Amino acid sequence: MADVPVTAGVLGVRLPLVQAGMGGVAGPALAAAVAEAGALGTVALYRVDASTAAELVRRTAENTAATFGVNVIPEVAGATLPAQVAAVLDAADRRLVINVYGLPPSWLVPRAHDAGHTVLVQVGSAADAQRAAADGADVLAVQGVEAGGHHLGDRPVADLLAEVLDRGVSVPVLAAGGIQRADQVAEHLRAGAGGCLCGTAFVVAAEAAAHPDYQAAIVAAGEDATTVTDRFAIGWPGRRHRVLRSAVTQAAQPPAGRFVAWTTVTGRRLPVPRGSAAVPTVETQGGIAEMARYAGTGARWVTAVEPAAEIVSRLTGLPATGESVARVGSAL
């Protein structure tokens, strides 16, 4: 349990729990609510431009005095990434956690550190974990194949965590993938993790921007409700992803492309083609069930849409406010 306060201290929060950055779902309301509950809330940037990135940081900061994270995805942001990062650093009014999906470019970690911020890097292999730690990451998150969303590897989280720890990486390591219950968090802590990173658990937060039909489908999910597929590659090619099963994932052949919905992104109304990586949000209208409804294997244990503070409490076994991180280990 010694790693628990160390990890939380490195991240600047009370509890060793991180809400994943989920494009379209993890907006300022969710990030601020999770931060207020004592965990690390994260606002997702995905493909947004610099001005929108700055606005997301400012809006999150207006709703919490706590540390929060900002998620960037180098392989998706592409040439927009430097402008996104610059805008985030300029807009920051406190220490932030820059949460990077996949290995960051060589300039990112030094730039974040020079500005006084912490860097968390998500990886899917032990080799990438070692490289990220050597390149200066402050915290790692190892993503198992149980995770919802896009995958960085193909290993179960427990196996990957064990290998990374056996290699003696020099920074705290979070476990990610299929985590919905306090006993799962406790098991990963006993195995040596410094905490957990959770996504699907927070898709069903009342403050999340996920479409209500998407949330309801997760609540209704059964034992075998998710699958790993490559059917939602438009906008994010080359990464397999875990989603709720649907007519799109189960068809013998990829269904012919056509627009299945409309959504709004940074004020623009856009059509959503079948096979798009876009997630159904509160702004989406149309065929929600034909879209990419990302969800991890832990969806089978989700029973309701709840406030983020209640989700934090359920995952840690502690009241969401007023508890010190030193009590997490004994509570779990």
UniProtKB/TrEMBL annotation:
Keywords assigned by UniProt, alphabetized: Dioxygenase, Oxidoreductase
A Pfam family reported for this protein in Swiss-Prot or TrEMBL: NMO
Oxidoreductase in keyword set: yes
Entry keyword annotation includes Oxidoreductase: yes
Record GO terms (molecular function): dioxygenase activity
Highest taxon listed in the record's lineage: Bacteria
Name listed for the protein in its UniProt record: 2-nitropropane dioxygenase
Species this chain originates from: Micromonospora sediminimaris
Record lineage: Bacteria, Bacillati, Actinomycetota, Actinomycetes, Micromonosporales
